[in-house]
Design brief:
Layout: H1 28-33, H2 40-67, E1 71-73, H3 75-87, E2 92-96, H4 103-111, H5 114-119, E3 126-127, H6 138-146, H7 158-172, E4 178-180, H8 200-207, H9 216-219, E5 231-239, E6 254-262, H10 270-298
Parallel strand pairs: 1-6, 2-4, 2-5, 3-4
Antiparallel strand pairs: 5-6
Helix pairs in contact: 8-10
Length: 299
């Protein structure tokens, strides 16, 4: 995401305890209306994204599956795990390895169907793309806006980075999910690089209360479980023919996806807590990568 060590904002609502765990996410209007505590600009962005999603979402999937001829192995398990994570009603981050510019699109496709997103647009996570990847193209800027993105200028100053981090925390604390790439960019070696992990994800987890055992303030007014401990859905995504980083996976490549839920905890405080929590997340992704290559060697 970035390498600045700055500070930083947590997940889903239901109001009636007797209703099903998804009853609060039935209609887009209720989705936006339930975010009154969020800035109006973010509510408008979410509503615009939902309105455009029948075209953009279906178009993206058609492009991936029909034009690029990709398929995802592990999709059903990923959807079940993601659904279980959201039903826990706890602050949720998605943290993934990063090899291509379209990793987020594959993860969105893997975690839920277009129909599920239209019924429950909180399932569609926010993303934090680097501004240099889309600022020169008006169409890409529009897609980024409609795709629930919070752009970050990786060369920006500390005040800009803090603003982005604060926005992420506010989104997650009010029931939204945010996807982050802890390495801060596409891996130039084609492998997870623990030494390159940024502290941003650790700061988010620390500030959301995980480092101190969870804060009851996290859940108050957000519709979340009183257990306000954050959780991280770790996702490892890789094409069979993906040797290193690229803009797109090879045409026709089969994507393999592994997901695991992680609850990072630490007894540290301050910057040490941020570092410890970030290291736990990247270590999990590295272990998932090792398992991927070990399984491939056996096959």
């Amino acid at each position: 995401m970035y390498r600045r060590r700055v500070s930083l904002p947590v997940n889903p609502p239901p109001s009636d305890a007797s209703a099903s765990s998804r009853s609060h996410l039935r209609h887009p209007a209720s989705h936006v209306g339930s975010h009154e505590a969020l800035p109006r600009s973010l509510r408008r962005q979410a509503l615009a994204g939902w309105a455009a999603f029948p075209i953009l979402g279906a178009g993206a999937i058609a492009y991936m599956r029909l034009v690029r001829r990709h398929r995802i192995v592990g999709l059903e398990e990923a959807r079940a795990t993601y659904r279980r994570a959201l039903e826990a009603r706890r602050p949720t981050l998605v943290c993934a390895n990063h090899l291509t510019m379209v990793d987020s699109a594959f993860l969105h496709h893997a975690f839920a169907s277009v129909a599920d997103y239209l019924t429950d647009f909180r399932r569609f996570s926010w993303n934090v793309p680097a501004v240099e990847n889309f600022t020169t193209n008006a169409a890409l800027r529009a897609i980024v806006y409609l795709g629930k993105c919070i752009p970050i200028d990786r060369s920006g100053d500390a005040a800009h980075h803090k603003q982005v981090l604060d926005t992420i925390k506010e989104l997650v604390s009010h029931g939204e999910v945010v996807t982050l790439f802890p390495e801060g960019g596409r891996s130039r070696t084609g492998r997870v690089e623990p030494a390159n992990v940024t502290y941003g994800v650790g700061q988010i987890l620390r500030d959301l209360g995980q480092g101190s055992g969870g804060s009851p303030d996290v859940a108050r007014g957000s519709g979340q479980s009183p257990d306000g401990r954050p959780q991280v859905l770790c996702a490892y995504l890789r094409g069979e023919r993906q040797d290193t980083w690229s803009n797109m996976p090879e045409r026709g490549d089969t994507m393999h996806l592994r997901v695991e839920l992680l609850e990072p905890v630490t007894q540290e405080r301050g910057l040490r807590a941020s570092r410890d929590l970030a290291q736990q997340v990247i270590a999990k992704l590295k272990a998932m990568e090792d398992a991927f290559f070990a399984a491939r060697a056996r096959s």
